[in-house]
Structure prediction request, 306 residues.
Amino acid sequence: MERDLYEILGVDKTASQDEIKRVYKKLARQYHPDLNPGDATAEEKFKEVSAAYDVLSDVERRAAYDEFGHDATRVGFDPEKARAHQRWQEQAAAARSHGGARGFDDLSDLFGGAFGGRVRDFRTAPRRGVDIEAELTVSFLDAAHGAQRDISLSDPATGERSDIRLTIPEGIADGQRIRLRGKGAPGLRGGPPGDLYVTIRVSAHPLFRRDGKDLELELPITVKEAMLGAKVPVPTLDGRVMVTVPAASQTGRKLRLRGKGVTGGDLYAVLEVVVPTRSTEAAEAALDTLEALYEGDVRQALWEAP
Prediction:
């Protein structure tokens, strides 16, 4: 059985959106592959947590999940169509209990004479199947590297499911669509099937922000590393690399890692100088010495602004 999404995140069904977000960030960092290199269990946990958050972080998708369960997470699921199908089933059951109801064949009896039989001709002509629109949420890393996903399409009208293997192109962006020819609804009376259009939704990443092909992340450094310069490790899509922090670096300075973005883009590490949270007498004496090294008022530019 598929696990309950609330259980995966360890929150109650009445949890607020802020609580769900807070718990997800904690779990995402705990199981992130960069922090657990070579740990397949942690990687699987990360994917499971991310998939649960993708649904529960969206108010509409969460409501649909609460109403329909795991069926609401399947590609192509439409809550309105599902509700319409439920109403149709209820009406059909009520009609059967009252001696049955006339079907669609009655349309030809009703309109056939008025239109000279054209309704019957329309009913017998081949018709192309309709196109299907669906959404699929993929992880940030799958979107960057490319992947293959098996998706399950659910027909709200019949309840039938069909599995399709979808290739996620490397570097696909949030909102892009993938077209699968002939994977839409089947044609009628020998007509060709329609197409399936899958809109890709990319999950947020706890470290990286994406801008086109470029990536950006915040890189914490110590006061000493900022002042004197240092070589520090930086996570990338392909693992850790060492970068050089120039001496006298300030918070906000960007270090460019060429080719470490998405499909040939660049990665920008934005420096963030982190000061110690603990103080001692020796530290305070050292800070007094450090304070004397500043040349003038560090906020002088604020008063010179027009």
Observations:
- Residues 209-292 form a domain with the HSP40/DNAj peptide-binding domain fold (CATH 2.60.260.20).
- The first strand starts at residue 132 and ends at 138.
- The first helix runs from residue 5 to 9.
